[in-house]
Amino acid sequence: MASHSFTFFLSHALILFLLHLALPCYNAAAKHGHSPSRHYRHQAHHSNPRLYHAYIALQAWKRVIYSDPRNFTTNWSGLSVCNYTGVFCAKALDDPKIQVVAGIDLNHADIAGLIPEELGLLTDLALFHLNSNRFCGVLPQSLSNLALLYELDLSNNRFVGPFPSVVLSMPSLHYLDIRYNEFEGSLPPELFKKSLDALFLNNNRLTNAIPASLGQTSSSVLVLANNNFGGCLPPSIADSADTLEELLLINISLSGCLPPEVGFLYKLRVLDVSLNHVEGPIPYSIAGLAHLEQLNVGHNMMTGVVPSGVCILPSLANFTFSYNYFCEEEGTCMNLTSKGIAYDESHNCLPEKPFQRSEKECQAALEHPVDCFQHPCTAGFRGPPAFAPAGFPAAAPLLSSPSLSPSPSPSPSHF
């Protein structure tokens, strides 16, 4: 896929647009059950109670910031919160006569601290960006009050604990990025039922099988890489065909065969299942993915024939199937250079091709064929490999660091 970079600049115009998108959920703010403002209600006489609540929240936050080497919060004093660095105000949706705090952008501030319960007072917040800081601890449940929040970027911090289920209570959330943290445990099935446009979960400590609800995702970009989920890719992934364009499952201990339902994802441009324990053949259904630009099945235990239908895909620009046990290439697959496709076919069992596995390794694979119909791929399956893999990497490389300014439509170069 052609490399392109998306740069997100937080502006008042964009905040107003996102607030407009969140308008149907505005009245829901009062229905959330967490109230961190217990002893601030007497301040209702203030000329703008919402900005006063924002002042209370930001002052509470400043008190639990332990390091701010770039002095982002130096001017966080006084009631004029709209002048605070990284704080953006806009007209309230329900009352254009008053200003409210609609966005916070502290990307790359290198701040160390916690997220206090009082941030739940920022009920007009539409964007909350904390990419590349040193915030730690767990997210308070009071954040469920952020009924207008459209984008939440907590990437590249030090947050811990189970998956932050508080995000499930944010009705307007469309963009969630929690990559490069220390979240652990299972993913809640409800996550994939939310109306998210992009979902980045990579480089955490998440475990257990991917929920079967995966196919209910509305995301165009879904990145689960560098976790330890295990199990198979649920066949329900086919249900996301109308939206899914990029699916990255790199190094997640995926096992079993790739389900043929992958070939139903007709909008898919990027599919990467490398560095796993996937067995069996490349599903021939992938030959129907006319928009597929990048396909990476490298570093698995796949066998059989590399199908010509995949190699003649009209948009294919990069095809990696190295470090497997493929024994034959059909048609055009034998000469991908002629089609201008970048490829890596090394460390397979391809006759008369350079840099292949030894005869002993290949024979072991041939003696233990995989029948995917006998072992259908279902979520939670952790069957043993059909044969002991040889040459599998001891440790998988991490994905690259998060982009400086993540956007709602990132390219794989951001991963």
From TrEMBL:
Pfam families: LRR_1, LRRNT_2. The keyword Repeat applies. It is found in: Secreted, Cell wall. Its main location: secreted. Gene3D superfamilies: Ribonuclease Inhibitor. It comes from the Eukaryota. Residues 57-89 form the Leucine-rich repeat-containing N-terminal plant-type domain. Keywords: Cell wall, Cell wall biogenesis/degradation, Glycoprotein, Hydroxylation, Leucine-rich repeat, Repeat, Secreted, Signal. GO terms for biological process: cell wall organization. The keyword Repeat applies. Residues 1-30 form the signal peptide. PANTHER family: EXTENSIN-LIKE PROTEIN, LEUCINE-RICH REPEAT EXTENSIN-LIKE PROTEIN 3-RELATED. This is Cell wall hydroxyproline-rich glycoprotein.
